[in-house]
Amino acid sequence: MKFFGTSPSTLYLSYAIRFVLVALLLTGILALTDQEPEPVWYTFNPAAEYHDTRLDMHNWLDAPAGKHGYVKLDGGDFSFENGKKVKFWGVNIASGWSFPNKPEADQWTHYLAHYGLNSVRFHKFTAPGMEKGVSTRLAADKFDRLDYFSAKLREQGIYYGWSHIYGHKPLPGDSSRLLAYEEVKEAGGGHLKGSTIGLVNFAPDLQDLSIELTINMLEHVNPYTGIRYADDPALNFVELQNEDNLFFATAHNWIMKAPTYKKLISLQFSEWLLDKYKTEEALVQAWGNSALNAWPNFQQQESLEERNIYPLAHHGYLSREYFEQNPQLQARLLDTAFFLYETQNKFYNRYIAAIRKTGYRGPIVASGWQAGDFVAHYLNLHSDYKAGIIDRHNYFGGGKGHRLDTGRFSNISMVSQPGSGLLSTGMQAVADRPFALSEWMSLIPTEWIAESSPIVAIYGMGLQGWDASYAYASNQPAITKTIEAPRHGLYNFDSPLYMPLSPTLARMIYRGDINEGSVVASRKVHLPDLAEGKLNFDEKILQNQDVKSFEGTPQEALARGKVVVEFTSSPEASQIPSLRDLYDQSGNSITSTTGELVWHKAPGEYFTVNTAGTKGMVGFAPEIPISLGDIQLQTYNPFTVVLLTSLEKDKNMAEAESWLVTTLARARNTGMEYDSDKQMLLAPGSAPVLLEAVDAELLFRGRKPKWAYVLDHTGRRTSQKIRLKKNKLSLLGSKYKTLYYEVVF
User: Fold this and answer.
1) Looking at the predicted structure, is the pLDDT value of residue 33 above 60?
2) Angle in degrees, CA 48, 52, 57, rounded to 5
3) Of 19, 304, 629, 646, which sits 20 to 30 A from 527 (CA to CA)?
């Protein structure tokens, strides 16, 4: 990334001189040195309890959860049964951490409430919690812990959803029920070895296990609430399966290691083809002579008579690129895609019917996983659409692996390219369904992590109108003392670069400060056209493990207004804007259709939010003041997040008696080292974590405050007050060693 033709590391030297000199002048000390000064860093040390803080959001949560009835799909939104709209700003709690002891559950509940989280996605927690020998019942001791934790969350106004299955692993007690238990046990590799992933989408015996487990959980009565989970409106979604579908390459990889299940899906496909074409002669006429035995490494001597035609369940073979390179296989590929789609729908319909039979009336998520591009992607998206809400995952930045380690990493910033990274996930939103980003994270050691939450909250939950966000993940009931999670490596929403921003962003979301934009891009998909391999727009979707990106419709459209997919009943032209349509006349910035947000490409690389309830900027600001209505903001760091918000639920900034100001830049472990180009991590460092001090100045052109309190790292007032001078407040983190201030009127 470049900024004014200068690298971020070079900028930090020039800017560092400015804000260190400010601090030295304030103390009456000014010494010249032979070396350029480094940024000021301070130890971040929040308290472990959360009473009497200005951040506290306990009373913002509408307790108890479920008081307004079940969450319902209301067009493209979530509403309760009484009509009240709702958005979920939440976190994942995964695996065995879903079963804390009672004191930890109490602490975790208060921690989440203090920072304003109103929902938890319990994730992949059944695998470590099974009753011995079988995979369809949770162990009683584990269920008791989950029951207690769920009850405490509910009591506080925090909703919870179940993403309980990620690669269901059958156990020996299930073996007599399966076609080939030993094949499943040996299938695949890595952490999903021995699971039903991929296979479950077409194999009824494996589906039975997932369905039975889910029904057993829904039928369970939580002894701490006295409510059966199926009857509990605080359960705000049930997900059928995590990161799985029949189109993704995992399905093919597992099938090739499970010959009994390969025979099953080949039989199913052959019967589907027989129903469509009636004879092999008609099939060959439709497909062409070269289509049978097209992939001899996977299947040979294919014929309808033998019922052994293999449907290649792999998104790479259903991509636009593969279609274009293999036109002789188009008919076979299209039939394969629609067979996979119908087979997946059959599974989802069966699963959903069983859930609904319990009486559960809340939202259902099929799976938060995409399927490459072109036909496979849109059929899988439509399958999810038919099942319930649209839910997706995305990650950005970082290096290799799941732990903070030395080596090369990506140090680019999302603010440098409007609509990129996490925000680009919105390219999969569908016009009349709620949209959830249920796993996301910008990964360390990328330096610009603090941009992530504001992008998701302001542009995603705000301008795009997304309905739920679940960062991945909260792993303990306190902010971590290192930038990585002691128990979960890179996946750390408890980091000082994430959780401290939540009180501002949650207030903004719950108060509805950001208006949804007008639709500026709509890709129209007509399934009968798709059956012929036709889309009336160009698009390419790229995936590198968990990181996804999108090409075709300009991603910059996400900075301008809403971007959606529409499934239409008849062919309709898509609405695809040009880049010229999106940028302002200068060509250097994109203003949202609401007028509240502006994403700047030059000078600087940053965006601003300017609403009645929240104002601020995120990114690499220019060396000039930024106008935000009757506030003018000047920052003295190259990369900064500065957000101002009303502290009151029912008052905007013009009416509120006080505002919360949050200032954040970079964070590092003590002893953490990068190379000179900031492309290699040389040493990960250790506790305590250090925050880069942010120096900023606010000029008030309208209502004037009395002063600003310096708040401590948990948000409590200190004895230090900053007085208004010439209508300005100087918020100097280099002096006060904090990230929080309270402006009082």
Assistant:
1) no
2) 85
3) 304
Q: Where are the alpha helices (DSSP H) in 72-203?
A: 102-114, 140-156, 181-186
The average pLDDT across 531-537 equals 95
Tens of pLDDT along 597-631? 999 999 999 999 999 999 999 999 999 999 999 99
Residue 744 has pLDDT above 50, yes or no: yes
CA 478 to chain centroid, in Å, comes to: 21
253 CB-side CA count, 13 A: 15
Angle between helix 102-114 and 140-156 (nearest 10): 30
pLDDT for 639 beyond 70: yes
Whole-angstrom Cα Rg for the chain: 27
Shortest CA distance to 618 belongs to which of 603, 602, 604? 604
Rounded Cα gap, residues 668 and 682, in angstroms: 13
The C-alpha angle with vertex 278 and arms to 274 and 284, in degrees rounded to 5, equals 85
With residue 392 as reference, give the H or E element that holds it. strand 390-397
Omega prior to 39 cis, within 30 of 0: no
How far apart CA 45 and CA 687 sit, in angstroms, is 11
Residue 130 gets which letter from DSSP? B
CA distance from start to end of the chain? 40
C-alpha 609/C-alpha 662 separation (Å) is 14
For the range 647-653, what are the long-range contacts, defined as Cβ-Cβ under 8 Å and sequence gap of 24 or more? 647/54, 647/507, 647/742, 649/60, 649/507, 649/510, 649/511, 652/513, 652/612, 652/613, 653/612, 653/613, 653/614, 653/615
Spatial separation of the C-alpha atoms in residues 576 and 555, rounded to whole Å: 11
> Residue 161's beta-bridge partner residues?
121, 237
For tokens 């996979």, the residue is 340
pLDDT band, very low/low/confident/very high, at 286 (cuts 50, 70, 90):
very high
Q: pLDDT tens for residues 142-175?
A: 999 999 999 999 999 999 999 999 999 999 999 9
How far is the C-alpha of 23 from the C-alpha of 34, rounded, in Å?
A: 18
Taking 90 as the threshold, does the pLDDT of residue 48 lie above it?
Answer: no
Closest CA to 731 of 677, 652, 681, 665: 665
List the one residue out of 229, 210, 226 whose CA is nearest residue 218. 229
pLDDT tens digits for range 206-220: 999 999 999 999 999
Whether residue 7 is predicted with pLDDT greater than 80 in this model: the reply is: no
Which residues, including other chains, have CB under 8 Å from residue 386's CB and lie 6 or more apart? 345, 348
Contact 668, 482 (CB under 8 A): no
| Cis before 128 (ω within 30) | no
Confidence of residue 49 (pLDDT cuts 50, 70, 90): confident
CA–CA distance, 163 with 369 (Å, rounded to integer): 13
Q: Which residue has the tokens 């903070």?
A: 404
pLDDT computed for residue 18 by the predictor? 45
Query: At 438, which helix (H) or strand (E)?
Result: strand 435-443
For the record, the structure tokens of 549 come out as 């990106």
- Sequence-distant (6+) residues with CB within 8 A of 184 are 170, 178, 194, 195, 196, 199, 206, 258, 261
Q: DSSP assignment, residue 318? A: G
Rounded CA-CA distance 550/138 in Å is 39
Q: Counting every residue, how long is the chain? A: 745
